[in-house]
Amino acid sequence: MKFIKPIYLFLIATALTSCKDNENSVINTSEINSITPYSAIGSGDITSIGSFPILERGICWSSEPNPTYSGNHSSDSIGIGKYSSKILNLNADSTYYARAYFINKADTIYGNQVKFTTSNTIIFNNNVTYGSVKDVDGNEYKTVKIGTQTWMAENLKVTHFQNGDEIKNETDLGKWGYFQIKTSAYCWLKNDAKNKNIYGAYYNWYAASDSRNIAPAGWHVASVKDWETLNKNLNPFSNLYNHTGNMLRETTTAHWKSMNQFSPITNELGFTAIPSGEFLGASFGFLNYGYIAFYWTSDGTSDGSSCVYLDSELTIDNMRPNCIGFNIRCVKD
Q1: For position 113, which CATH number holds?
Q2: Residue 131 contacts by C-beta under 8 Å, 6 or more apart in sequence?
C-alpha cells in the first residue's frame, strides 16, 4: 500500500476548501448607470464571502464578453455589501460588458455580466462661451473666438455651396484617394449619414477650394495663413514640441482612442478637435480614425494641396493629393 505524503494531503485539502469557499461566495453586478460617451458608474453587491477576507473589489469591463481582472478594472475599498465604481476611458457609441469582482487569497470571484452602450455626443469645454453660425443647409455650429479670429468649433457638414449648388455625395470608394476625381465631392464616415453630427463630412480639396464657397455666409475655409495665425496664438515663441494640439483637442477618450500622457489635453480654447482621420479611398479606407484630426486648407494647386493634421501638435502639410477626404474648419471673414 502506497502512502500519500502530508504535503500532498495539505494541497488537496486546501484546493477542496477553496472550491467550497468559492461556491459560498456571492457577488452580483447591478445595472450600469450614469453612462456618458467616455465613462459610466458600475455597482456590485457582495452578500457572502466564504471563509477568506476580501483583499480587493471593483468592476472589470471590456468590449468583449466576460471581462476579467487582467484587463480594464477599477479597484475600490474592501468590504462586504453594496459599492459603486467608476468605469473610465470608454469610447463613444460603443458596446461594453462589465462584471463586479472581488479577490481573496484563494481566487478572483466574478458576478453576473451586464451589457451597456455608451452615448455619443461631442464633449465641448463648459468653461468657454460659444457663439453659433448656420450654413446654407440650416446646420448650426458652435463657434469660438481665439485671439483675433473666430473659428467654427465643429467640423463642416454642409452638402451645398452658398449659391445652392449641390456638392456630390461620392459613395464610390474607388473614386477617392489619389487623383481619381477632379470635381467637388464629400462623403460621410463609413458612408453613413448618422455620423455627420459628430465627425462632419469628408471633403476632397476641390470642394474646399471651390469658388462657390462651401463655408457659411460671411465665413471662409481656413487658409494656411489662418492656421499659422492660430498656431502663433497658441505658441507665440515658436517652441518645438509645445503640444499646441492638446490645447485644441476634445479632452476625453470619447472619440480619441489615444491620450497623450506627457502633456495635459485641455481644449482650453474650446476648438474641440475630433479625430476623424483621413479617407484614402477603397485601398486604405479611413486611416488614423480615432488618432489624428485632418483638415483641408483653401490653399493648393492641381498637383497637390495643403492640409493640417492635429494630434498633440498642430502641423501644416503643404502637399497632399487632392482626392483624399479631410474635414474642414471655417473662419469668420
Answers
A1: 2.60.40.10
A2: 142, 143, 144, 145, 150
Q: Distance between CA atoms of 111 and 105, rounded to whole angstroms?
A: 17
With the C-alpha atoms ordered 79, 81, 84, 85, is the resulting torsion angle positive or negative?
A: positive
Asked, for residue 22, whether it belongs to a domain, the answer is: yes
Q: Please, is 221 exposed, middle or buried when counting C-beta atoms within 10 Å of its C-beta (0-12, 13-18, 19+)?
A: buried
Q: Which of 30, 21, 75 is nearest to 53 (CA)?
A: 21
Residues 177 and 77 in one domain: no
Q: Which residues pair with 168 in a beta bridge?
A: 185
Whether residue 298 sits in one domain with residue 238: yes
Q: Are residues 162 and 242 in the same domain?
A: yes
Of 218, 186, 220, nearest in space to 205 by CA: 186
d(CA 10, CA 271): 65
What's the pLDDT at 32?
A: 97
Whether this prediction's pTM lies above 0.90 is answered by: no
CA pair distance 213, 167, nearest whole angstrom: 11
CA-to-CA distance for 260 and 268, rounded, in angstroms?
A: 15
Any idea which of 8-22, 54-68, 122-136, 221-235 has the lowest mean pLDDT? 8-22
Q: Which three cell numbers stand for residue 125?
A: 469645454
- From residue 251, give the alpha-carbon distance in Å to each of 25, 82, 245: 40, 31, 11
